[in-house]
Amino acid sequence: MKILIVSYELWDGVTNGGNVLSNIFDGFDGEFAQIFCVSGTPYNKVCKRYFQITDQMVIHREKMGRELVFDDYPANIEGANPKGDTRRTVTYFRSSLMLLREMAWSVSKWKTKELEKFILDFKPDVIFAPCNPIPHVLKIQRYVKKIAKCPMISYVYDDIYSLKKFSLSPVYWLNHFINRKHIRRVFKDYDFVFTMTEKQKSEYERYFKRPMGILRKSGSFENEPRTNIAYPVKLIYAGGVYINRWKVLKEVKNALAKINKEGKKAELHIYTANKVSKRQEKAMADGDNSFLHSAVSTEELKELYKNSHIALHVEAFSLKSRLDTRLSFSTKIVDCLESGCAVVAIGPKGQAGIEYLRENGAAVCISSKKEILKEISKLINSFDIIKEYAIFAEDFGKREHIKKNNKERLDKLFKDMT
Predict the structure, then answer these.
(1) pTM, whole model, 2 decimals?
(2) Residue 269: which of 312, 315, 223, 317 has the closest Cα?
(3) What does the H/E/C string look like for 283-312?
(4) pLDDT per residue over 295-345, tens digit each?
(5) What is the CATH number of domain 233-400?
(6) How far apart are CA 127 and CA 68, in angstroms?
(7) 128 with 6: CB under 8 angstroms?
(8) What does the domain layout of the chain look like in residue ranges?
(9) End-to-end CA separation in angstroms for the chain
(10) Class of the CATH-defined domain 2-218+402-417
């Protein structure tokens, strides 16, 4: 079976979107190609053939699109290394820049003979097209389906459509309504859509009347639950610090500073590819209780988890952040569950991912900033609780997130579609 991925993301081992693609398709019986829309070089063990179109090509009026073909999988090539998502946690005038970017794409000639040839030469049986609120990517997905004349399956991770948002910026709302228009159009071309949460599936079925299902990230669960614990207890957070997550990590750092007043009992290590301001770096990491590191590959992260005791997942408490992430199921949740560590999830009540962990007893869930010091102190002062929750996380992950189950579900759907 030939599967053509049409996405915004760079398929690597660090960025969220690239990580998800590898998680879904690693070991899948098929031949792959990808069309993607960012700069950088792929890094994975699944796909060797690509077509890249970037903002820089549009803005600088360069040749639109280039084909990349590797003799071996990019991750196997000596010297290759994933660089990850380097977006800033705060981007000033972001909404205005997005509008300008889409205007540039709308007058560019991206429908090239080279792109058409790439699609026709590959002859996909199925298109897999994650849905992001980026109009030019959604236009490319619709174009690819028109040329390829085959079923298109999508995956939506976050609430990119509803009006349950908060912003005082007119430009933000202009962007959102433009994105909604393109999302409505592309959904008509999706033959099936996956979400990560039941709540989002229910809402989006009402919006779009398309067949939908649940597909969450899976794991190998090879790490044994961490039972060899000693001071200092190591907490690890790996992922984005945008959407105000850095503010929650600041509260964790402050809690550890109080816990460590009478001796070093715990430390937090943060791994992120995001560019952060000096203010944000100082807020999250003081070099004593909390430390900030660059992002690492999936393989390196698994090794880091082996030397840690508590895996953190956080979502921010501000109104805007709560609305932005209310339906989201962070891919980092499954990374935490398979880490072998006890899992601590900090974020507002009602947030889909955190409620999932709470309902299934898979993590220590903290629902307010006031509870952070109290709940983390309990863990740091009781190795038995850490061990207990490490076992809970491992057992639950093995029941609900084994890779074999996702592969069987996808394989059946793809075969039914073709």
Answers:
(1) 0.89
(2) 312
(3) HHCCCCCEEEEECCCHHHHHHHHHCCCEEE
(4) 888 888 989 999 999 999 999 999 999 999 999 999 899 999 999 999 999
(5) 3.40.50.2000
(6) 19
(7) yes
(8) 2-218+402-417, 233-400
(9) 9
(10) alpha beta
